[in-house]
Write a structure and sequence with these properties.
Layout (H helix, E strand, L loop, with lengths): L1 H20 L4 H37 L2 H11 L39
Amino acid sequence: MRLITLALVFLLLLIQLPLWVGKGGWLRVSELRSQVTAAQVKSDELKARNAKLESEVRDLKDGTGAVEERARFELNMIKQNEIYVQILGKNGLPKESATPLPPPPPPKADAKPQ
């Protein structure tokens, strides 16, 4: 009787094996669901980026505000009769600039002092 019970348990496990690790098994379904979720997140990020780019293109085509803003910040242009004020940070550089100035070259050794 014990041998029959063990054989039936073994057959039950053997029947369930494809359910867990087979081509359409639970593990594969779980893996595919996580891949779908990751793809949806990436798709949402790309849709948001595309919407932002589309609105920027529309602004550049239709209005002058975006063109003026780019000219001000990227090209440092100002309008006529406009005053430009630049605020320097503690190190003497503009606050937008993160690159320090190169150090001055050392004096030449062969130069004669006067």
